[in-house]
Amino acid sequence: MFNVKTFNNIAQIGLDQFGTDYSVSPEADNADALLLRSHKLQPEEITANVKAIGRAGAGTNNVPVDYCSEQGVVVFNAPGANANAVKELIMAGLLLGSRGIVSGIAYVDGLGSMDDADAMNKLLEKEKKNFKGSELQGKTLGVVGLGAIGSQVANMALMMGMHVVGFDPAISIEAAWRLSSDVKKMDSLEALLAKSDFITLHLPVLDATRNLINAETLKSIKKDCKLLNFARSEIVDGDAVIDALDAGLLGAYIADFPKPGMIGRKDMILMPHIGASTDEAEENCAVMAANQLQDYLENGNIINSVNFPHAVLERTTGYRLSVSNKNVTNMLGSITSILAEHNINVIDLLNKSRGEIAYNLIDVDQAPSATAIEQLSKIDGVISVRLL
Q: Could you tell me if 357 and 327 are in contact, meaning their C-beta atoms sit under 8 angstroms apart?
């Protein structure tokens, strides 16, 4: 029996993925895993028995990932599960930024006192020129970050008749396959900024991406460009954006992350972080996170972890060890030596590493004794050992 503690309101279809061998509850005691959405997880909530954390969404800035790595706790996210929801909102953002939709709606809302239909029609015909915009077709969209969401946005923009340029120095092979060959790859962020009529950001928050859009980078931006940020607030220096708008360098800022000082500006269209707020996205994220937690708890497989390497090994026996350790020399040799001392034969083995963490899946011909597992746990550099 596995205990899973939930935070936030997790979509029921995700909770339904857990079988009868699971107890899933916000009050779960001695939890083997945690499942959450936006809850700001504190280290003290990660009790000694916790083996994994599932984030039902893409970002993990609400999880103390470094602390989890030190404790051997695998942190999963759900990249791509909300990609369509965000993509569709980007489409709306592009349209809102190119046409006088927001200002036009606000103007019409102010005509509530009029009761003469003919007079209203004449007034609207006279005033509509004030809300004239431009078409997206033929404009250039710059996509910064070409992962699960960015690649979908790029392909969508091409279908809308836009030219698309992209920049992502860390693009994966999988993402590259998803991307249309009509997307022109740029060699630098500055080159993309200088060429784009619209720019949309699709990056995680890392040291390298924090305040990526700042006063210096905005000097390269094409005049009157519209900047869209539906990724993370921390990627953009809000004060620098305000200065660029005031100086006439930037045409508009369309974002999912309002901040004080931004409210009420006519050159900003701000939303309350609703990029992934659809029933479908929440369900997709919950299902993906739940399935990944189950596969790890039952089989030790790791898919979509932000702190451990990707590791998937088909089971060949009924006995499997998972061992996480510091990524230093001779660890695997030490592990297999102890197994040999106990006459345990290795049937299949997978060894993967990511940064300072290494992870092993070892299928063996018999169940290791408690003594063997204790000896494995005491190897200098071993973080955790599980018998699955």
A: yes
